Structure formats: structure tokens, C-alpha cells
């Protein structure tokens, strides 16, 4: 039991010494305001967060995410065809594509895909 306790104490001591040495030896850089602040699409993060924001940017980002997920779901479909029943695969794929086409039509009809009015 004392051997395990000795090994644990040595491990903790050595790791503490290594961490302290790394902190002392590490190169400390003087960070500038621009380098230490996050880049948020050209907005200055040091100003007020209550600035008016165009909802068009948000809408485009949401539409991009929808189509990105769509591609991620569509790509494995041909691979899964060999491992499943062809009729059920066709039905599921057709329903999925129909839902996506109806959603695209709705976005187009609402004017979400037009950047300028």
C-alpha cells in the first residue's frame, strides 16, 4: 500500500513541477486588442451588442444550414440502397426529396431566396 502511495505522491509532485516550469519558461506575448478579440463578421465586439442587425443575414444562415443538413442526409442514400429493400428505399427517398422540394418552393414563394427586394 505504501508503494502505491509513494508512486502517487511522486507522480503528482513531478507533474506539478513540470507544469510550473512550463509556466515560467513559456513565452508570454503582449496581446493587442484586435488579436485577443473574436472576429464576428466585421462587427466590433467592444461596442454595444444592441446594434440593429439585418434579419436577412440570419435568414441566409438558416437556409444554408438547412441545405447543408440536406446534403449530409442525401449523400449516404445511394450507399444504403444496397443494404435495404428497394421499394422502401424508394418510398423513403421520394418522401424526403418531396419534403425538401416543398420547403424550397415555400422559401422561394416567400421571397427568402432573393437578396434584394
UniProtKB/TrEMBL annotation:
GO terms for molecular function: NADH dehydrogenase (ubiquinone) activity. It is an enzyme of class 7 (translocase). It catalyses: a ubiquinone + NADH + 5 H(+)(in) = a ubiquinol + NAD(+) + 4 H(+)(out). It comes from the Eukaryota. It is a multi-pass membrane protein. InterPro entries: NADH_UbQ/plastoQ_OxRdtase_su3, NDAH_ubi_oxred_su3_sf. It is found in: Membrane; Mitochondrion membrane. Pfam families: Oxidored_q4. Keywords: Electron transport, Membrane, Mitochondrion, NAD, Respiratory chain, Translocase, Transmembrane, Transmembrane helix, Transport, Ubiquinone. The chain crosses the membrane at residues 6-25, 57-77, 89-108. GO terms for cellular component: mitochondrial membrane; NADH dehydrogenase complex. Its EC number is 7.1.1.2. Core subunit of the mitochondrial membrane respiratory chain NADH dehydrogenase (Complex I) which catalyzes electron transfer from NADH through the respiratory chain, using ubiquinone as an electron acceptor. Essential for the catalytic activity of complex I. PANTHER family: NADH-UBIQUINONE OXIDOREDUCTASE CHAIN 3. Belongs to the complex I subunit 3 family. This is NADH-ubiquinone oxidoreductase chain 3. It comes from Reticulitermes labralis.
